[in-house]
Design the sequence.
């Protein structure tokens, strides 16, 4: 059983993999074949089943776990698997699709515990009550949803993982800069991307909801906070409420990135900066993860199209 | 009694004027004087009272109407009044400050009637109820507030004047393009700048409120619509609600102008375009209003720093 | 006889279609085939003739009307026609290629009448004479040419259709803003894109002429006006001539869009704005025309790469 | 008799100078004084006449040559002349204002001879005839007008000086790159700024004409060439005519600098580049002309706000 | 003895202050006066000595400590001191100018100790040796120089203060992201601004050196590292040397901010981000330091011209 | 024996060509074939060997000279060769690969002589010694390396060819502008791209070295000059050394093109401008080289995506 990231060029292998996507195509000569993307926790690889008979088309659908014997080769410079022998995994074999998807490196229980410990540290009543109210509403989704469709943290549980890493950064930075209001930092970080739970349709093959498309998650979290305040009887001119909404609305940092207002208090600026910091760390990590030391990565569009070097020295 | 726009260079004049602003300054040689800006419906002009004794300082305050005799001259190329004789207007004289401020060229009753006629044309129930609810809440402010602090429509009643001119444009354009949903156009135009009533402190010497500064009028109108929908029992995923919010949120057209989302339906794009059209017409009108035919205006910063020509031919 | 926009996936159909373009290609295995794009008034669709014998190559040329029986399927997510049976349309069948091309939704006679009525409203003699002179010169082309190669109004008669829609907008807007000189608005709108008749080679498979490429239609209309003025004995410093040329030269609004000068009179700015308005309406219309309600369009490059939503409600 | 560039700080001097500009101002305390800018061939310096009696106001007007005794000092870091004794120059003294204005460092006769020699080298008939025709029309202005209002070559004769320096560059560069069409280079350079003669009002205290403002010199030279071609019977689709117009229209290099089209032939690109080269050389020269070695200049706005260093070594 | 930040409007005060700068100016009426900027640890304030006799000019020079009695007032909205009585501080009074300058809030001994502790943690030999070598060369300047001329950390000791705050951030962030090479982070942070010691002339009234102007501190630190490597016998193709130079060269993050190369390893990106973080914290801190709660600051040019709000709540 | 640029469409030909690159690919049906790019001095053309047996794969490798008989045809609008008969060139045939590569149009001996003559003209001792020292170090590479990977002068010897063309321009321009320091111009031009010898791996199939990627050639030449100065005992604050380094560091003209500093002396600005001039001439030359008169080229990305016209007239 070989993991995808360990497959060697020119060698045959076998193992269990998840069919991530499959498409029925025709060769120029008019013959049907199946173009399949295989996946496990360590990566993805493509291959074609040239004999796309009816049974094959019916069996090999996205979401199915299969046993595959095949040869890894290069096609136009990109790895693919050829000479494929494929069958569905049986019930006695490891056929749970969840085991093959990339997901958050930390388990949910630990994340929940850490989030709770941070909520305790939010001393301001307005912020504490609003955070609790919204966390409760999205109790399930917050730990399942990705933080993005593509780019960074685009995996199951990515939203909570991204948020908690930012909470750690916020804790550290408040130690260096005691002038920062740590309660506001924590409340702002916890909620900043929460409305991704409304913007996305779910955690598998996610896409945008209609309100995600027409309003966006920044407006949607502001709506949630406004409504929570209304329900909790918090006045709409109260300074602490305005400060929290300001941090959430401005967390993209620049108008051209979709914030309707730019950060105008220290905590808003810092929440924006640690959001960028974690997003860029995750993207650089992903870009260089499968490189050999001494190699450069592909260009990363969301990081100004830079490519990144993986040093040989430790 | 001479209007400010009719004052002749090098000639003495007298009349009643409003003190728009006044500042106590010192000459380099350490002597106090009052730097005053005078105003009537037709414009403003500056002048200095060199003998700033206590009585003068006390009497000549912003908001007071005065009788002035003076000489109009140029100082470094800018008109100012010199050799000023000043006294407060008495009760038997025209001393109502409201009569000296620039204001909307249409009277409030006509505006109210027109707005009502448009509300009747909003056929969709969600939009109609939300518009009525919010119009009611800002019933007074909508007809008093300016549409902007500086730039365009920065006068009492400017908000309603700008909004109703845009409604006229919307009506006309819906005749040319029947594919536009006129109900949505009307609802969107009516509400697009309504939260200026929350963003500004009032209609005299207006400045930004705290929520105006930290959230901005685009976010504030979205909050009002969300709350109105909650109170009216309109579901937060209803398409017509989302479309209206989308039109309001995107009406600045570009992210860099403070919209968190760009127009993605026809009506949103058109509301944005007629907003720009009326703002630019008003700014060009203001820039060229006091020019002689054949002259160029000052540069208008908000119109890409262009200056505008007033033709000689009609 | 099924229109292209009504073809159903997975179903056989037959009907008459125009060959819009055809290319002789080779499979990787070295076999010739014909890649054809079929067209009718409602859209286009592609398909391949795998047996590209000499007779086929000779018969099936661009501009020919054919009778086709075929099956609509998807190839890599894009619709195409397969299992094609093809023959030329006979003289007794509907074989006039003009009937299969997209064209202006209004007929030429109505457009001509409307244009004439507007010319009557141009009261200034200079503008009236120049407009008549140039309209006469391009009497045929103005009603045949497209308004653009791709983007908006890229169909036969598109130039006149775009121009007359703008004239309607100009009429309406002059009602809202009586300070606009309607004669100048009409003259400017009528001529603004007229030199597309010199910039493009024609209305079928149009491309750029050499002077279109090296000078562009803005410079070319300025040349036409200058020459007309010379012939009509209108002095080159006359203000009304300069104003008209200014409106034409500045109608792209910004230097970076190819205007050598930015709008500096009200009418020039408004002509630019209604040009943008009609172009964007037409592009949004085209982008959403074939969508189901509730769907988003493809991204539209010329509208800042936005995609547009077609609402479910009316 | 001391030249302005040789005046020493803290020393009295006397000599003849031209009054470049004069303004009647008031001190804050209400007293009239004259603010004068004095000029000779080597520079300008400012000073105030504190006793602005009627006679002084009448005598000391712009364009008058005066005899001045004064002291050079610094005022807020800028040189000015104080303790001024002033009288008009008499007829027996050097009172010709032309002798005090900055002007082209080469004399007109030499420039004319050089321009003629270049015209002889334009071998293509179309270009040669058009150049001769336009040179003849602007025979006087071409040698008198400046090349710009401010920035570079803003002095009498500056247009011809700038043009002939560019011709020298064109000659040299055609030696390095024989693939360039030298006739087109020469014709393009000779005409590129010629319509400054229509854009500016003259060579003293120049400002923009109405057509300069509303059309600009790029459009105006295109008009001149089009009309010359019409008169000379050169067809408006002839390639050589189009190439010349293309070079002239594109000589600002970028759309945002006012060219309606970008250079698309080699010669157009090179004319643009040598135009930039000569303009930047002249601006750097001016910026550093009066510096001591080892000093940095003021920032030069038209050169991206850079400041320039004058080295100590030769 | 009142600190400048505690001076009350409209009240007389007395105390010792440093003359930060002084200029001899003339009133428009020709009378000399001294324009002085006074300073202590808490801020600066301006005032004029209207009787600028010879003795005053001689005594009151920049760098002198004076005893002042005066009245704090507003002049055109800006605080200044009037009715000044001034004398030099005597030897028995607190006349050490160092005591009046703003400086780093941490003392030098603590900073030195902390820096040493970090150097011990740089485990890679190349980096450790280069850091020691350069720290030794700038042993004195590193603890005296400011980090910038204006903007952030523009005070004595600012360079070391900024660097050590960044070191703290680096330590914390390496805890959150163990994949970062902490030795490289520390070496990069320690050296990143070190060449400010070559770019600036010193720590009082600092300006740019010639090499500061012509090369800049990024190039200068690269030169220092290259030379140190040459002296220490470290090959110029060694990967660890290249990585360190890359971090230093890219620490401005973007080419347009003067880095000749953008960050292409994780550590370079993170050094850039914590540099921005500390600079923006310091600028926001400075901008809001003297505000009342509930006020907005002036606009901060280096933070995209934003102004910052100081909340009322803690 | 036909040169590639002279091959006619639809005709068989034969001759000797170099295999520039070769790739083993599979048809969609799974059959191996060789995709080969053939090259001679005049251009490149592609073709496929459909029978990729073991012997073929072994023989036909990049760098081999072959004898080919084949037919030139179009495939999707691009020229390719079909019906290929291929064999390796024998020892008695023209099989030296160097004879088939594009290279500098001037021979190395002439270039060396010209470079020497220029070195003699560098009168300043610092510059002369540094230039000699660095020229000596890169004596071989300077005449072999390309000036760029793609874009302009991307051929063997391109670096020296580009440099010497710029030297010719520098000589000419110093004649027009005697105020330029020709010694500095020559030294700057000679060294400006010299570190491409360190940035690239070589002159065949060149790629970037690690230091090329992480530091770039601008930083690398600055390192070379600094070290040369150290070895030659030239002080690091000497003005002439700083001026030369400034010219080299700023030769890309703008920060966003990778210069850490912008040109701030005349010579630096001029070196930048003639660098741009030669690069753009070479790119326009390349783009239009194989066009028929009257055609437009492909768009050239590095010239703002313009396409260029090749006139019909000479």
Sequence:
């Amino acid at each position: 059983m070989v993991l995808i990231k360990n497959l060697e060029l020119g060698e045959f292998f076998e193992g269990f993999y998840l069919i991530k996507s499959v498409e029925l195509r025709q060769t120029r000569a008019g013959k049907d074949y199946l173009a399949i993307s295989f996946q496990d926790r360590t990566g993805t690889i493509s291959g074609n089943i040239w004999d796309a008979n009816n049974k094959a088309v019916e069996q090999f659908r996205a979401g199915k776990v299969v046993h595959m014997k095949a040869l890894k080769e290069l096609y136009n410079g990109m790895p693919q698997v050829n000479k494929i022998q494929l069958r569905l995994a049986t019930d006695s074999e490891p056929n749970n699709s969840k085991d093959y998807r990339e997901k958050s490196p930390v388990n949910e229980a630990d994340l929940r515990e850490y989030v709770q410990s941070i909520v305790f540290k939010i001393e301001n009543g307005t912020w504490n009550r609003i955070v609790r109210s919204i966390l409760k509403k999205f109790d399930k989704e917050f730990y399942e949803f990705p933080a993005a469709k593509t780019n960074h943290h685009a995996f199951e549980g990515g939203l909570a993982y991204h948020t908690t890493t930012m909470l750690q950064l916020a804790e550290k930075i408040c130690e260096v800069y005691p002038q920062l209001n740590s309660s506001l930092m924590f409340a702002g970080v916890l909620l900043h991307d929460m409305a991704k739970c409304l913007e996305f349709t779910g955690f598998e093959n996610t896409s945008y909801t209609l309100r995600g498309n027409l309003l966006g998650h920044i407006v949607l979290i502001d709506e949630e906070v406004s409504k929570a305040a209304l329900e909790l009887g918090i006045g709409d001119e109260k300074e602490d409420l305005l400060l929290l909404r300001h941090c959430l609305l401005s967390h993209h940092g620049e108008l051209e990135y979709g914030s309707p207002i730019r950060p105008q208090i220290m905590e808003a600026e810092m929440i924006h900066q640690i959001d960028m910091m974690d997003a860029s760390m995750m993207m650089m990590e992903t870009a260089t993860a499968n490189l050999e030391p001494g190699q450069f990565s592909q260009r990363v569009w969301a990081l100004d199209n830079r490519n990144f070097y993986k040093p040989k020295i430790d």
